[in-house]
Amino acid sequence: MENIQSPVASSASAVAQSNRAPIQAVLLQLRAFIALLILFGFFAVYSDSFLQTNNLIILTKQVAINAILGIGMTYVILTGGIDLSVGSIVGLCGIIAGGLINEGLVLSVFGVVVYFSIWIVMGLTIICGMLVGMVNGILVTRFSVAPFIATLGTLYIARGLALLRNSGATFPNLVGDPELGNTGFPKLGSGDLLGLPYSIWIMVVLAIIGTFIAMKTPFGRQIYAIGGNERAARLSGVRVKQVTMLAYVISGFCAAIVGLIITSQLVSAHPATGESFELNAIAAVVLGGTSLSGGRGTIGGTIIGAFVIGVLSNGMIIEGVSSFWQTVIKGVVIILAVMIDQFQQRLQKRNAR
Amino acid sequence: MDEIILRAEKVQKIYPGTVALKDVDFNIYQGKVNVLVGENGAGKSTLMKILAGVEQVSSGKLILNGKEIAPKSPREAEALGIGIIYQELNLFPNLSVSENIFIAHEVTTGGALVNHREQDRQTAGLLKRLEQPIKPRTIVANLRIGQQQIIEIAKSLARNTKILIMDEPTSALSNAEVEVLFRVIRELKTQGVSIVYISHKLEELLQIGDYVTVLRDGHLIATAPMREINLRWIVENMVGRGSAAAYTPAPHEIQQETLRVDNLTLPHPGKAQGYLLDHVSFSLRAGEILGIYGLMGAGRTELFETLMGLYPHAEGEILLHGEPLKSKSISERIRAGMMLIPEDRQREGLVQTLSVAHNMLLASLRNHLFSRLVLSGRKEKASVNQHIQELSIKVSNRNNPIGSLSGGNQQKVVVAKALLTSPKVLLMDEPTRGIDVGAKEEIFTIMVQLAQRGLGVLFVSTELKEVLAMADRILVMSKGRITAEIPRAEATEEALVAASAIGHELEKAGV
User: Fold this and answer.
1) Closest approach of A66 to chain B, Cα-based (Å)
2) What are the tens digits of pLDDT across the range B208-235?
């Protein structure tokens, strides 16, 4: 808001000034990356086991979960919204996949039970995640419910549905049955390619596609425009409702992927999976420099943000820091990140003058 | 001779690049309605803000009851007895009348607890003084706009205001509410309150004003007691006699009809009767520059927004190149060849978080595709560079933030954005608002070039001289209707002003 109303005076000299950006501004812009390097260096020096390949893979596997959620979350936050429902979508999608594998789809009308192959199970699960995202999108765009409230509602609804599906019980041992042709689900969580688990590859692929969409497609450009100034975007012919809706659908898609990965890693579907994941995802987005008021931020930043959180907690675990202190430190880091962000914005404004 | 309570002497206000006020003297007479008139940009609001402590003088002085004052903030001005009521009311709709009146000046017991009973008692007293049957505990959101205005006045009175500045106080009021307001103003006068009254509605000024001061281009033009002058005197002083337009547009050939609007009607939201657009019909030819003149609230912006499809419930027919425009979506209208350059550049024209290039391309992304879903960096770069050059936009790097440009160059980016959609008809709402003289001329030149290229250019301005200089033909709007259509050769300032006041005269007769 402040941005929009501030009268922008400038001259040729001001333009020149912002071109040779002062070194401090550059450092500020790369702050998340620099923080990551410092943390990484710190734990590499002070801990013997931190740099072991095994630990780095475990670390990245954890980061992948948060990063994938963060990619979807970045789109939503870029529009100026927020998606609190992703953690619940993770749980709901896990339960849906688990149920389809262990119990199949009961079509009581025909008196039959249909078991799908693993690929179709995963496809249906992803569609369910996107549907929840679509509900979020419809609430926000068609019914003008504030994103915070709309997704808070679906947070409860999706979690409730996940608990209802199997009366709060877990679907265990999701290995499938060769006779039903639905084996192979655990591979998603345990398999690897070139020594790296699938989940890491999925994160890399989604990050690349996500960045490409944000930078090189009309949809991506319009996401930034909506978050920056919705009315100006609308008057420029941007279909604000459709574009915003799509951001929530993408977030639902990412959450569904995470639901599948975690369920597969555990080889069982638990309805409480994913609780408070949304907060970690938001933290990663914010640490990565995306503004909660929308319009500014990158997917790459979010990935770095997810790594900052991952390295911090992994390193602290290795160092034996009490888990209570870990929570406190995470909070401090998030607040610091936003304070630095505000500082950078003020600096930028001053340089633009 | 009436007594002067506040006198502004040789007041100057200089902003970077412009002189908003130059050696202006202004007297506020005790217990009178002191009217301030002038076109947009004449310096009325600047003077008003100086009196209210929002802005400070660059030179000159303010003398209150013989003592020089220099209020540094609205709060200081308030302490001196100077209050201001802005056009947009500053009330808290969620709070009660008495809470609003005493906001930040709460009556407390023991310095901590709000004494609601005492506040309500005082509020009741104020409202009685203003002869308003409003209960102190009423939530402000439940009051009509006119009543809210009265609450603003009560708020000022509660702070012991001796001089009350009112900026366009009637712009949102119904006729009956205006009558109530005028009664209140007369009542305040008898109680010794001095009023500074700013309005575009000239008829209104004749009714309520005691002294009138005319500003033009930051200069004091004339000042006189109202009983010695008439409407004609005000208009002549406002627009200036014999001032030739500085800009002469190059010749451009006017061709066949490109846009035809038939009976475009937009009902007033939330009102049973009354229209924002009242059966508006006109036509625009390719290569023609059609100017629309009208006062604030005449329906100019609504006309443009309706043409763009912002109001789905509008009725009437719009034909572009003979084809009726059916779809109400903005993107369809843009694709059909209509494009708007909005009045408020910051709020509606630009996305502040995007770069110069990305702002410019925002409306025409579909013309810059590499494949169906992917943008072509090469095409984008070519378009942006071409338009930076053609419109001579001063920017060292197209990826610079839009905020690093001057107002004029920002406006050129908005124009470039519109041109990139290959429009047939360009709607320009106050295209020169808030930019300096040099940039204004550049925008005029661009408008003429576009007309020469065969575009239909429709532009709105509240500045008479601008309309007279630029337009091939002028439509005057008042109260949502087109009240005059005047070809360039026959257009005079007086004719435009007269036509722009047409609905307002009727209103007065009807009361």
Assistant:
1) 27
2) 999 999 988 788 888 999 888 887 788 7
Return the CATH number at A221.
Answer: 1.10.3470
pLDDT, tens digit (0-9, with 9 covering 90-100), for B17-54 = 567 888 999 999 999 999 998 876 678 888 988 999 98
Give the model's pLDDT for residue A234. Answer: 92
Q: How many domains does the structure of chain A reveal?
A: 1
Mean pLDDT of B269-283: 80
Whole-angstrom Cα distance, residue B368 to residue A81? 28
Cα dihedral angle (B458, B462, B463, B464), rounded to 10 degrees? 80
Q: What is the pLDDT of residues B79-99, one digit of tens each?
A: 899 989 887 778 898 999 999
Does residue A316 fall inside a structural domain? yes
Inspect the interface and report whether the beta carbons of A224 and B342 lie closer than 8 Å: no
B4-239 has which fold? Rossmann fold (3.40.50)
- CA A209 to chain B, closest CA, distance in angstroms equals 12
pLDDT at A351: 59
How many other CB atoms are found less than 10 A from the CB of residue B494? 13
The span from the CA of B304 to the CA of B277, in Å, is 11
| pLDDT of the residue at B29 | 92
What separation in angstroms does the CA of B355 have from each of A80, A222, B98, B358, B359? 18, 13, 47, 5, 6
State the residue for tokens 């035809």: B260
Q: Does B306 touch chain A (CB under 8 A)?
A: no
Q: Which of B14, B335, B353 to mutate to test the interface with A (most CBs of A within 10 A)?
A: B353
> Cα B243 vs. chain centroid, distance in angstroms?
23
Q: Is B290 helix (H, G, I), strand (E, B) or coil?
A: strand
Helix, strand or coil for residue B227?
A: helix
User: How many A×B Cβ pairs under 8 Å?
Assistant: 121
- What is the CATH architecture of B257-337+423-510? 3-Layer(aba) Sandwich (3.40)
The CATH 3.40.50.300 domain(s) of chain B lie at: 4-239, 257-337+423-510
Sort out which chain B residues have CB atoms less than 8 A from A295's CB and list them.
351-354
State the Cα–Cα distance between residues A282 and A288, nearest whole angstrom: 10
- Indicate the residue of B330, B352, B394 with minimum beta-carbon distance to A229: B352
Average pLDDT, chain B: 85
Q: What residues of B are in contact with residue A208 (Cβ under 8 Å)?
A: none
Separation between Cα atoms, residue A201 and residue A43, nearest integer Å: 25
Q: Which residues of B touch A218 (CB under 8 A)?
A: 365-366, 369, 373, 375
